[in-house]
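Quick one:
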Amino acid sequence: MKLVTIVGARPQFIKAASVSRAIDRHNQASAKGSNQIQEIIIHTGQHYDHNMSEIFFKELEIPEPRMNLGVGSGSHGRQTGQMLIRIEEALVSQNPDWVLVYGDTNSTLAGALAAAKLHIPVAHVEAGLRSFNKKMPEEHNRVLTDHSSDLLFCPTESAVKNLNNEGITKGVHKVGDVMYDSMLHNTKLAAECSNVMEYIGLQSKSYALATIHREENTNNIDRLSSIIKALDQIAANGLPVIAPLHPRTLQFIRKYHTEIKYVTVVEPVAYLDMLTLEKNAKLILTDSGGVQKEAFWMKVPCATLRDETEWVETVESGWNVLVGANTGSIINSTNLANQPNNITNILGDGKTAENIVSILAGFRKM
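Output:
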């Protein structure tokens, strides 16, 4: 079987790496030439990430992409359109049996649409997730990708139910969350490689970690100002706040003349460093879905800077609290750090990648 994996952002590479490792194990266990999976990784170039250097692939044991389409940034329509053109050309040249896409980015949707129009079956990892917020571009990407897919790999039971509610029942598999596989693998690497705590000068459980990147927060002056005000107040009250902020977020902060007084702003950090900062934080404040889950798995209290989340299980557990952009709610979330909870992992068992590969290996080109 020839499988083309399409990714466009750092988190997708990290998730895809777990499946690539599972493919290698599958091929080693299979008889030579029998039921082997040949994987070709295509990077759309959606996000340029200065942390995705050669060392990124080497340290995280991630296969480098066979092709980089170099699409780059742009408006949603322009970017997705360029991806469609270039992905279609790549798929015609490779003629794969399956196309595998991840998550909810423009790369996800473009990959699924290009494959579907060429009658190449599509498998979607993280299928069925819904925020039910149609103002989010990610929500449209999720829905359209799911309705274009032949295999839908759901991380949770709620994701399966969401698809059922939309009339999608064929090809649906609850496999767990592949990100948990990735975290288990990479936290071991982080323990060996990361020195970010010493570099920044931090002590474990003595700080809050904050990340802000979603458009609903960065592109809205009222929401962004309210969040920054709350983070500053938390820091002023005695709990240092460390914020690795993307240059795009900082541009909006400057554009809106929002003042940061007490928050310690650092440049975006490498993934292993980020895992280390999350693990040692007393509290995490974030609008990232991935960081919410990592906080859940690491048993670090989390306040989500959104009004809804696709990962409802983390909220239902009591470990994650939705605080939106309300200044008072964000400040009050510091009380979470003093409320220990016992939780069970309902988002996977660390064998999601094996589940995905096993299901793919049972199919041939439709």
